[in-house]
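Quick question, first post here. What does this chain look like in 3D?
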Amino acid sequence: MQNTDSLLARLEKFVRKKLVLRGKLLWARIKFEILGQAAGRSELKTTLISMIRNEKDILEAFCAHTSCLFDRVILIDHLSSDGTREYIKLLSEKSSNIEYYCFDDPGYYQSELMTWTAHQLVDNKMPGWIFFLDADEFLPFKSKEEFDGTLSELSRFPAISMPWLNLIPLDMESGRVIDGVFLKPPKPSRFRKIAFQPNRIPLNDYFVAQGNHDIFVGSKSLCIRVPAKNSFPIYHLPIRTKQQFREKIRCGVEAYQHMGSRRQRTNGFHWDEIHCIMETTSLTDEMMMGIAAQYSDTLQPPYEKSIDDLLKHGYCEMKMEICGSKAMIPFPGQSIAKNDHPSIGTNIGRSTSDPKIDFDRSMDSMRITA
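> Answer (accepted):
Ran it through. Tokens below.
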């Protein structure tokens, strides 16, 4: 009898908790509408949070672009071994709006890391936008003024969605980004990234989905998606050179394997699929173009696509005309602009005082350590 009473008490507590959460989520839906209607235009600070690993071929261009657009840039290195970590650390010492952290858990805990960073390192009560971009993602703006003006037009929405435009480089050797020439698809990908204004999210317990594709309020077992207004596209460059592409797939597959049973079944499936194809097929320019054209979707053969094939399917040439700081420190072997700054080598020792974000898997908690 005592066991039965105890079970009933626990069940009652569980049901009550679920009902309370459902009430909060219902109220959140109403508040999304109220906040959107009541929003006015004001100067909004912009913050970028980015998780980066082994991106030496594109990192200089990415940092030049994002430091030009955003008021604050938070770069988190994830076990880089190609000089990426040392480069962003140096940038943080030279640039007032760039911050550097490292995350050394081998698993691909992007959702947990982005959620924690947004909650703990950004003032969620201050008006402003939080973006989540990977190093191969660029925004279609030629100046900060244009970017800020567009966000001002979108200020009444708690969140915005930005569809991928998966661009294909005509030059598969140089890795050139800014002012490079690419093939642009006739329509955006069905995949999107999100940005949001935390002060307009009605509940504090929000979380960012894996891949930074959505934001939810509630718990992972009971939640609602924050409605996001469709906005401008993201220029997405997942495939640039053979070496870069092989490294990207290898790192992604290994990181998800390290997550074990904590991995969601569908997360990173496209990397597994591409890895299998690369293991059995020669990686040619046509193969890379075909995979880029279907990136993140289930790949359908034939995998190879020529430039003529893509042009027949509505692709067109475009020049990557986006803003970028002319004073960016060059990464060795990469150059977007000539300047007098010294370059950084890949043999700089790692300091034990680097700001590190530790993840306690057993508690699902993170903290900063020196």
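Residues 164 and 234 are 5 Å apart (CA to CA).
The chain has one domain: 39-369.
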